[in-house]
Amino acid sequence: MKKILLLISIAAALSGCSSKTKKTTTEHRGNPTQSIVYGGFVQQRTEQLRQMGGPFKDRAVAEQKAIEEANSRFGGNPGDSVTTTWSTNSQADKARAQDEFNDTLNDMEKKKRADQ
């Protein structure tokens, strides 16, 4: 009886490993416009802090404080953020099909704009 259960458990484990894994990776980059706004805020706030004087006379201290304020306001530098999404097996096929469909719709929209 123990041998049968052992064989069944081994067969079940191996059958799960036999399916080939498919994987898709999608990257989402940050908004470059937000990055420009973030950089402008840091630069402007650094100058404001330096004009206040005190411990902020030193540019490095003022810039660090400005970056902390910008991170609390913007949640980090938006241009530096990269989000990666992975899909496996059947989800990979669905994600790939959805991407192809979106590309087709974008191409149709571009063609429509060009015709007008």
Average predicted confidence as pLDDT: 79
The spatial strand order of the largest sheet comes to 1-2
Uncertain segments: none
Q: Describe the largest sheet.
A: 2 strands, antiparallel
SS-derived structural category: alpha+beta
The total count of helices amounts to: 4
Using only C-alpha atoms, the radius of gyration works out to 27 Å
- Kindly, what is the distance between the CA atoms of the first and last residues, rounded to a whole number of angstroms? 76 Å
User: Percent of residues in helical segments?
Assistant: 55-70%
Question: What proportion strand?
Answer: 5-15%
Order of SSEs? HEHHEH
Q: How many beta-strand elements?
A: 2
Commentary on this structure:
With 116 residues, the chain is α+β, with helices and mostly antiparallel strands. The chain has a domain of 52 residues. Helix content is 68%, strand content 12%. The chain has four helices and two strands; from the N terminus they run αβααβα. Strands 1-2 form a two-stranded antiparallel sheet. Helix 2 packs across helix 3. The longest helix has 26 residues. The protein is flat, with a radius of gyration of 27 Å. The mean pLDDT is 79.
